[in-house]
Design a protein that fits this description.
This protein has 8 helices and 8 strands; from the N terminus they run E-E-H-E-H-E-H-E-H-E-H-E-H-H-E-H. It has helices at 30-44, 61-71, 85-95, 112-120, 140-157, 172-179, 189-199, 225-241; strands at 4-6, 15-23, 48-55, 75-80, 98-103, 126-137, 168-171, 204-212.
């Protein structure tokens, strides 16, 4: 089991919105982006928190995150022992105090999607922030991989959504019961959540999302494709064996 440490113990306080942000080796942009995120969240609701899920960073990310936590009462920092996006998302949902949770990245380029997602959550249990309903200006490799992956998921699992990848919004209480037993890697938690949400009859919506690469992707590289394909295949088999 991955052990999570909270850098500053604070009393549990109810919030309307939790913004979950996995961070890994983000020292160059963390302070600036987190400050903008706080300012934007204040426009959505007074009752919000930002959970910075630091996972396995080897640079100065954790120290910057701690300083942000001291500066902003709305920021909480939790640390994971190993670098893994899915683990960070799942543990963020488990730790969230908000009625609603939205997962985003610190390298965001479309803050407005948080507002669209938050509004859609009033009538939905899961909201997909869809690049394919919005605008995807990433590299050709990233776009082609996303299209292929979504087509494969539709074929194997019958999910009709335009984009199962990317950022999601959740009704925290309902999704917390779904993620309790999920153990997966990379970005595959999104697929697990969606197939399990469908099985229990949760309402799923999509909102448009604009994305481009403000820097080279740390996740999508040609050298990583065999690894990503392998772990995806393993998860597909696990899901099928469980009847999804």
């Amino acid at each position: 089991m991955t052990i999570i440490a909270e850098d500053r113990l604070t009393p549990t306080k109810h919030r309307t919105l939790s913004i979950i942000v996995p961070i890994h080796n983000e020292e160059e942009i963390l302070e600036e982006q987190a400050s903008k995120l706080v300012a934007y969240a204040r426009q959505l609701t007074d009752e919000f928190e930002i959970l910075l899920l630091e996972n396995g960073s080897t640079d100065n990310t954790v120290n910057i995150a701690r300083k942000l936590q001291e500066r902003f009462s709305t920021i909480r920092v939790k640390r994971l022992e190993r670098a893994d996006y899915s683990t960070a998302v799942i543990e963020g949902v488990k730790a969230a105090n908000g009625d609603f949770s939205i997962v985003t990245g610190i390298d965001y380029v479309d803050l407005g999607v948080l507002g669209r997602c938050f509004r859609a959550l009033k009538d939905s249990d899961v909201v997909i922030c869809s690049k394919n309903k919005g605008l995807d200006q990433r590299s050709l490799l990233s776009r082609l991989t996303n299209r292929y992956y979504n087509a494969l998921v539709r074929l194997l699992f019958g999910l009709k959504y335009s984009d199962v990848e990317g950022y999601h919004g959740y009704n925290t209480k309902k999704i917390r019961t779904i993620v309790a037993d999920i153990e997966t890697k990379a970005h595959l938690c999104n697929l697990w959540i969606l197939v399990k949400a469908r099985k229990v009859g949760l309402r799923v919506a999509e909102v448009p999302f604009v994305v481009y690469e403000r820097r080279k992707s740390k996740f999508m590289k040609i050298s990583r494709l065999p690894y990503l394909a392998t772990i995806s295949l393993v998860e597909f088999i696990k899901l099928k064996r469980k009847g999804y």
